[in-house]
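User: Predict the structure for this protein chain, please.
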Amino acid sequence: MTDRALSEEAMLISLRDIQMPTEAAGGIAADLAVAVGLASLIALLVSGLLRALSLKCAEPASLSPADRLDQTRHLPAAERRVEQLHLLRSLAPERYAELRGAIYEPGGGIAPSALEAELRRHV
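Assistant: Here is the predicted structure, written as C-alpha cells:
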C-alpha cells in the first residue's frame, strides 16, 4: 500500500477495472455439469439420511418364541393379534398359510384364544 490516500474518483476507477469474465471456461456444458453434479450429491445425501432415519431396530435375538408370546399379553387386542400372527408365520408357516385367507374374512377368521392355543402348541 502507499502512504498517500486515494481520491474517491481514483478508487471508483480502480473498482471498474475489476471484472469477472463473461463466460467461464468450458462454457454452458461446464455449468450444466456442475449443476447436475451438485443436484446428484444433494439427492444422495438426502436419500442416505432418509434411509438412516427409516431403518427399524432389530428385535433382540435372545427372546425365545415363548417369551415373545408372553409379551403380546400386554398389547391391545388388535396389536396382539397382529404380533401373534407374525409369530405364527415364523414358527409354523404351513399353518399360517392355511389361516391367511380366513384372516381377512368378516369376524377375523380364527378366534384370539384359538390363535394363542395354536401358538402354545408350537413353542
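DSSP finds six helices and no strands in the chain.
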